[in-house]
Amino acid sequence: MGRKLAAGNWKMNGTPAMLDGLKTLSAPNGTQVLICPPAPLIHRAAQIAGPVAIGGQDCHTQASGAHTGDTAASMLKDAGATYVIVGHSERRADHAETNAQIRAKAEAAYAAGLTAIICIGESEAERLGPDCLDIIAAQLDGSTPDGATADNTVIAYEPIWAIGTGRVPTLDQIIETHDMIREKLTNRFAAQGTTMSILYGGSVKPSNAAEIFTAQNVDGALVGGASLKPDDFQPIIDALAAS
Ligand code: PEP
Questions:
Q1: Which among 18, 95, 86 has a CA at the least distance from the CA of 49?
Q2: CA of 223 to the centre of ligand 1 (A)
Q3: Which atom number of ligand 1 is nearest to the Cα of residue 162?
Q4: Does 8 sit in the ligand 1 pocket, CB within 6 Å?
Q5: What spacing in Å lies between the alpha carbon of 57 and ligand 1's midpoint?
Q6: pLDDT for 116-164, tens place per residue?
Q7: β-strand partners of 157
Q8: Which of 27, 218, 236, 239 could lock onto 210 through a cystine, CB 3.0 to 4.6 A?
Q9: DSSP state of 168
Q10: Distance from the CA of 208 to the center of ligand 1, in angstroms?
């Protein structure tokens, strides 16, 4: 069992006015709540977020240098972030990010004192094929640094075909995949792997969160669309707290 984390990914959405909504979110005892707004809002978000932690959506592999448009992990930290998402499937697709780059980004996050949320997950064709679990295991292995601990790393399993589509794997598929991830983490990282948090992501809503959280190795959720409105995100947080 890892830390219980309800993480919201605002993607390229959000205005300063929306930050007021953060003040209405509560984090019940034993549950951590995180919002990852677009980078320009991180500083303001961190100033008003109260019990809500703030994270970035990506960081560069390097600490500084000639990388126009990119953000170093230390800059996110300076702005008030404590987490950063790396390897989201939209970054993998839009920016052709490889497992090796994502591993390097996670290492950059560690160096800056951030917890890395490392995203993995299969395409629909891969889900329908015979090697789905092997493909996810290879992503996990390739994207996770040797220095990963339960403190500096969270794994997010996000089937690409479930992100923003309203489609969700069956509970049995979620259980099977998260159990496999837990086994791999435990084999590689021993005690740290037994308590590294594993989130499920992909069309988590107030209506399906409680069922997803019944899975033993689902420690929380990475939530896109439903994290934009406190009225949708808070019931997901509360379902996690009750699980
Ligand atoms: C995501 O952005 O990581 C995500 C899971 O999005 P959604 O909840 O909208 O499917």
A1: 18
A2: 5
A3: 10
A4: no
A5: 12
A6: 999 999 999 999 999 999 999 999 999 999 999 999 999 999 999 999 9
A7: 120, 200
A8: 239
A9: -
A10: 14
Q: Where are the alpha helices (DSSP H) in 41-131?
A: 42-48, 73-79, 89-94, 99-112, 124-128
Ligand 1 near 9 CB (within 6 A): yes
Structure tokens at 39: 């980078």
Closest CA to 193 of 178, 183, 179: 183
**Please, which residues have CB within 8 angstroms of residue 201's CB and are 6 or more apart in sequence?**
9, 119, 121, 156, 157, 158, 162, 163, 221, 222, 223, 224
| 143 within 8 A of 102, measured Cβ to Cβ | yes
Is residue 105 within 8 A of residue 61, CB to CB? The reply is: yes
The candidate with the shortest Cα–Cα distance to 196, out of 185, 212, 187, is 185
> How is domain 5-11+33-63+71-231 classified at the architecture level of CATH?
Alpha-Beta Barrel (3.20)
Q: What is the pTM of this model?
A: 0.98
